[in-house]
Amino acid sequence: MSDVAAAPQPDDRPAPDPTFWTVHQGDAREISALLQRAAQAAGREDQPFLQTTITSPPYANLVDYGSDNQIGFGQTHDDYLDSCREIFQSVHKWTLDTGSMWVVADSLLEKRPKGGASSRLIPLPFQLAAQAESVGWTLREVVIWRKDRTRPWSHHGKLRNGFEYVLFFVKSNSFTFNVDRLRDTANLKSWWVKYPERHNPWGMTPDNVWEIPIPVQGSWDEAAFHHACPFPPELVRRMVLLSSDEGDVVFDPFAGSGAVVRGAIEQGRLGLGIELNAEYVSLFQESAPAVRKEMPEVKPVSMMTQRLLELRMLKYPKDLAKQILRAGFTTSQVRAVLMEVESINFKPARAGYGTIDCSVVVADDLSEIESARLSKLLLDVVGKAPLSKYGLEARCGLISVAETAAKFEDSDVSIYTRGRTWHADGTLSGARLGAWISEAGTPTVVPIISPLHVRQSLEESF
Q1: What φ, ψ does residue 171 adopt, rounded to 5°?
Q2: How far apart are the first and last CA of the chain?
Q3: Which of 1.10.8.100, 3.90.190.20, 2.40.110.10, 3.40.50.150 would CATH assign to domain 10-176+208-286?
Q4: Which residue ranges does the chain devote to CATH 3.40.50.150?
């Protein structure tokens, strides 16, 4: 039996209590009691229940957050690291095996007396990473958050600092990472039209440099305004979407103004935070969003996604025809390839983009031996690159010229005759298809014929 701590299913979860899923006042070094109660509230008493933790520990002795006995300010550096390690260990204990932890941190200059040796740069993010790994976390990714305004500011011998590190830790290899939610089709290269099979229909995988500026503080709401290092909502949204699902628990042991808890609730998660400074807690609770009960809106399929799927499906029979010709068949023997779309998967996926039917139209005088060889070839090539790279399930078979009329007798079809499967040359009545093929002579390339009609410019985008 597996000992993996699985996430509770939505039907197992009790109705959320908005008075509990909020920011609580307390010391992050004493979170055991809060997390014990939270596990019970999440229907996971005495068991791991946290899906993801998103936090930014105080930057050592850099900022005074106005509380007695705070972590960082007033501590020695070693005591500060020890405190962070204890918190990372508690979080690790209560985290599901599918869970993760995001730590936002920055390097800083060691404070030295004037006239002494030059101040040394302290690689705080990687010191924190070492503390986290010492209690069981695995550092999986490092994101550079380009934020424009950050602490510390520039000093002699140091350039203006415009970024911070976002460290992504996982508890096990079964961690949740929903990268498809952050894909974007807006910046595809111009050659996407000719090479749709090289593009994920839902967009490029996001890179690990995130440009998310901090708004001027006057545009922040009352809760965020008073905090020295507020998270912008977009930063929280990305981390929440990547590492959790609807109904999961998102935790912040250094909640500050509550940006993580707020962002989690807005995305339909259960947000939980603890914060030492009572003023921050009061400010959050005065303007806290209610636990969201409705499901998030389903992101509509973009025109670019739909077009990429269509182009991928139209190019498949073109590459199929190329494989046939490379095997020694000629365009006098293979007259066309008919492509029908049986299904399209409009949900993000690494493969399984849809199902198509490819009917290879063969000349009436093709011998039985050649027909058998061609049928065997079809079975062979669909399982190998390049066709296997398309992520399509394709049913391929042979059809005679005479049989084509019956296939599309009640519909029009589009004709792609010059190898440009992104731009139809025209349309034709399905009933006349057999006659058109017979009268076409011997083409230089195998025509692709489909009810799918696309006329895409190479320069046009969406």
Answers
A1: -90, -35
A2: 50
A3: 3.40.50.150
A4: 10-176+208-286
pTM of full prediction above 0.85: no
- DSSP SS3 for 304: helix
Indicate the pLDDT class of residue 142, thresholds 50, 70 and 90.
very high
pLDDT in tens, 26-65: 988 889 999 999 999 999 999 999 999 999 998 755 555 5
Confidence of residue 161 (pLDDT cuts 50, 70, 90): confident
* 3-class DSSP state of 177: coil
Q: What is the pLDDT of residue 441?
A: 83
Write out the residue limits of the CATH 3.30.300 domain(s) in the chain.
Answer: 303-450
Read off the tokens for 155: 């000093």
- Rounded Cα distance, 413 and 396, in Å: 19
- Work out the mean pLDDT of the chain and round it to a whole number: 86
Q: Hey, is 356 helix, strand or coil?
A: strand
What proportion of the chain, given as a percentage, has pLDDT over 90? 58
Distance CA 49, CA 51 (A): 6
Query: What is the distance between the alpha carbons of residues 215 and 217, in angstroms, rounded to a whole number?
Result: 6
Report d(CA 82, CA 293) in Å as an integer: 39
Comparing CA positions, the residue from 111, 87, 100 lying closest to residue 30 is: 87
Residue 328, Cα to own-chain centre: how many angstroms? Answer: 43
* 303-450 topology per CATH: GMP Synthetase; Chain A, domain 3 (3.30.300)
Q: What is residue 292's predicted lDDT score, i.e. its pLDDT? A: 63
Beta strands, E only, 401-435: 412-416, 426-429
Does the pLDDT at position 211 exceed 90? yes
Which residue spans within 246-319 are E strands per DSSP?
Answer: 249-252, 270-275
Q: Which helix (H) or strand (E) holds 41?
A: helix 32-41
How much is the pLDDT for 7? 53
Q: Can you tell me the mean pLDDT for 348-368?
A: 90
